[in-house]
Structures are given as C-alpha cells and as structure tokens.
Amino acid sequence: MKILIIGAGGREHAITWALRHTSAHELQLYCAQGNAGIAHDAQLVHIPAEDHSQLSSFARSEGIDLTFVGPEAPLAAGLVDAFERAGIPIVGPTAAAARKNQNPSPHQHDGLLLFPWPRDDQSLGQ
After folding, report:
1. For the chain, which end, N or C, has fewer CB atoms within 10 Å of the first or last residue's CB respectively?
2. How far from 102 is each of 11, 28, 77, 85, 118, CA to CA, in Å?
3. Which residue pairs, CB below 8 angstroms and at least 24 apart, start in 94-100?
4. Residues 108-120: pLDDT tens digits?
C-alpha cells in the first residue's frame, strides 16, 4: 500500500512512525515535506503543503492509495476538498469543517463551561 503524509511536524512524524512500525503489511510511505526524523521512515517529497495541484498530481502519478494531512492550514485551504474532487482517497476534514475548528463560535466556549474538564484558561492543578 502506498501512503502519502502531508506535513513536516511532530504530528506527521508520529503518523509516519506509527504506520511504519505497526503495520502488518508492506507500506511505501511518502511525506511532503517531511523532516530529518520522518526521513528514517518515509521517502521525502519536496512539494509544499500549499501546492494542492502538485500534491494531487504526485498522488495520482505514484498511485497513492491513501493520504493523511497533518497541518491545519492546508486543511482550511481546501486540500481535502481538492483531493476528493480528483477522486484521490484522503483523511481529513473539508475546508469548511477545518475553518470552523480554527475559529470556533463564542457559544462553543460558553457551552464548555457546563462541563467539569479543564480548559486552556484553567490550571490543571486547581
């Protein structure tokens, strides 16, 4: 199976590492852009996460079976929507859903006040 991971941070490194070290099947892993740590487990592809056209062309030409997107910016910019339009399997929210997550409604925060779990404005030690 051929899998493309998009991004270059810790999240993408964790996804790549987990796929490489836990799969019972042989995988060909690619990562655009990746980093030095990811390079131990995947072939790096020098395509920016913002270049939807080049990423979808790469996925199609390499016969990528599944794509994972780590960073929020390409999600909010519509990368998943572009891949879905092209018929390329991808994991991630649509642009509309990603933007909603980036800019939550003030009412969402107010609703969280009803529940006892810690939030970013509370200390876990209290």
Report:
1. C
2. 17, 32, 11, 23, 20
3. 98/72
4. 555 555 555 565 5
Entry pTM:
0.81
Q: Give the up-direction half-sphere exposure of residue 86: CA atoms within 13 A in the CB hemisphere.
A: 23
Domain residues for the domain of 46 are 2-112
Of residues 48, 20, 9, the one with CA closest to residue 1: 20
Number of Cβ atoms within 10 Å of the Cβ of 41: 19
Identify whether 125 is part of a domain: no
Instruction: Give strand pairing partners of 67.
Output: 4, 90
For the record, the structure tokens of 60 come out as 């199609």
CATH number of the CATH domain containing 8 = 3.40.50.20
pLDDT score of 117: 58
